[in-house]
Amino acid sequence: MKQRILIVGAGFGGMWSALSATRLLDQHGRNDVEVVVLAPQAELRVRPRFYEPEVHKMVAPLGDLFDAVGVTFIKGFAERIDVEGKRVGYRNAAGEFAELAYDRLVLASGSQVVRPAMAGIEHAFDVDNLEEAVRLERHLNALAERPATASRNTVVVAGGGFTGIETAAEMPARLRAVLGDDADVRVIVVDRGHQIGAALGEGPRAAIAEASAELGIEWRLNSGVASVDAAGVTLANGERIEADTVVWTVGVRAHPLTEQVPAERDAQGRLHVDANLQVHGHDGVFATGDVARAACDDQGNHALMSCQHAIALGRSAGNNVAASLLGVSPIPYSQPKYVTCLDLGAWGAVFTEGWDRQIKFERQEGKSIKQQINSVWIYPPAADRATALAAADPLIPVVA
């Protein structure tokens, strides 16, 4: 009977885990271990692009790729993890409950935006998952059918972190594409920080401020959203902003499945893992991507909830979960090079290096890199066995 490596999730971490595990098994000529991916759909949803228009196109089918390398895909929503019994319970495509036994588990279920218990939060949109991003796009496209008012032409973005800034920077162009080039649009970022772009540090702050001024983006600093309703938001300082569109980008937390693994978690719900991405205290249970609190160097830096880190984490987790079954040496996760590329809409983009985010390229030079990242670098490899397995080498550096 075959042993089974079960990977929960088909995002960046899950997909690359499956490919990397298969790569190591292939290198050792092992056909007695199956790699199984359990996820709601056999597609990579390119979440870093959900702030862009035509969001329904931001998916990459994985069926042919999995078939090419011999990965088994099971469509379903994971609901229960029994680490003692080595089983995962899930709802299949028909809504029926079923279970999968495993010999090794890789939890790669990702993260989700935190919607607080706030009055009217149901009126806010987000760009956290495909369905919500599509709902936002439909809403924006329908604005042209509403009476021309200041409220119709106003978007409030709650949160001035990476996602909030990229969403806000794209909004002027998205609104004018719907309402007309001459439309008097207004985009407002509400952030608790004391400076524009404070969440990203001093490195790119001046560029963010410059881009905001050029694009006409307003910032409400040292404040947060106290309540949302169908007509706008009320801020914590009492200010009222009339807006037909509110986008929530504040706070991200690891998928709640992590709570079913009896192990230490950080404030974001991520499981503490060792250098090989095995969950502390659980032989045979690995975590990767946004559910793993992993040290990426020996300087005290930890992986962020980003596709840049999830790709490398996935390659490492897949290799090491297979290595644990084969009895061969693992390859410790290491990702000392850290870069960011922040899209700032029509202004361009900012490409930085290092944890202090020193700018290397900006405006159109930065935009060219961002477009390359978003359209090529973060997508799955070709559905060719040799090409795909070669791309899953955990020693390949990731800069996207």
TrEMBL record:
<feature type="domain" description="FAD/NAD(P)-binding">
    <location>
        <begin position="4"/>
        <end position="312"/>
    </location>
</feature>
<keyword id="KW-0560">Oxidoreductase</keyword>
<dbReference type="Pfam" id="PF07992">
    <property type="entry name" value="Pyr_redox_2"/>
</dbReference>
<protein>
    <submittedName>
        <fullName>NAD(P)/FAD-dependent oxidoreductase</fullName>
    </submittedName>
</protein>
<comment type="similarity">
    <text>Belongs to the NADH dehydrogenase family.</text>
</comment>
<keyword id="KW-0520">NAD</keyword>
<dbReference type="InterPro" id="IPR023753">
    <property type="entry name" value="FAD/NAD-binding_dom"/>
</dbReference>
<dbReference type="InterPro" id="IPR045024">
    <property type="entry name" value="NDH-2"/>
</dbReference>
<dbReference type="InterPro" id="IPR036188">
    <property type="entry name" value="FAD/NAD-bd_sf"/>
</dbReference>
<keyword id="KW-0285">Flavoprotein</keyword>
<dbReference type="GO" id="GO:0003954">
    <property type="term" value="F:NADH dehydrogenase activity"/>
</dbReference>
<keyword id="KW-0274">FAD</keyword>
